[in-house]
Amino acid sequence: MSDENREAPALLGPAQVRELAERLGVSPTKKLGQNFVIDPNTVRKIVRLAGVQRGERVVEIGPGLGSLTLGLTETGAGVTAVEIDHRLAAELPATVAAMQPEVFADAERPRLSVVRSDALDVTAEDFAADATPTKLVANLPYNVSVPILMHLLELLPDLRGGLVMVQAEVGYRIAAQPGSKEYGSPSAKAAWYGPWRIAGTVSRKIFWPVPGVDSVLVGYERRDEPRGTEAERRLTFELVNAAFAQRRKMLRQALQPVLGGFDRTVGVITAAGSNPAARAEELAIDEFLAIARASASATESGE
How do 135-139 and 161-167 pair as beta strands? Predict the structure, then answer.
């Protein structure tokens, strides 16, 4: 049979999603941010926009009943799925095996592994050394999407890029540029790792249950070289937190809890090439990094 005529591997549709949920006794909960994707076309759109390739390893957070997981595995990619719900985690391999048995053709190295964990508690040790993910593709739980995203970006330096589906308001904040009304702490921190973009919008109707908010797809590519050292990242993020915690205040006031007294704070900000009278939303991540470096330099010189 030619490639053109070969039937594509089956993905989950609305009826199958509801049937699986009923059999498992699963009712999507707002507490866990569960909204299951029921549209195969949207699944394939996400996988295509993420650029998932055969042979690469993808980390997926909150696979749920397996809608997106099946879209990822049908490309020939491997998937490490992190799931907090024990019923869903236990059932996912069976669902994939039933619909795409080739995923488990190599019993020694199946293309799907499931980590039963809260995504915020997952560690580097949860990923096998020979299956370190290089791409993140996920429908992130809306109530904790930013903390999960930041945790994974810090935890998995081998991630070269990704695409996540999040609440629209959150997605626009993540991809926001300095000076815009959406720009905030998540925007600055995400930019540390590389450029972000809004890759598409998603209809509410592709979810079960239908959420009360719109969704967007946010993608990124990781920088080839780290922006700074780990110590610099920690101090830079501390500055970002302080600046946006009091975003209406000028930097010379907002950054004092991190940099010290008024005179030292003004001196450090000025040495970094920024205006002490500026406010948080005016600074790009490189400018926050410059302040962190100026602070470290001042400390080393005893200032």
Answer: parallel
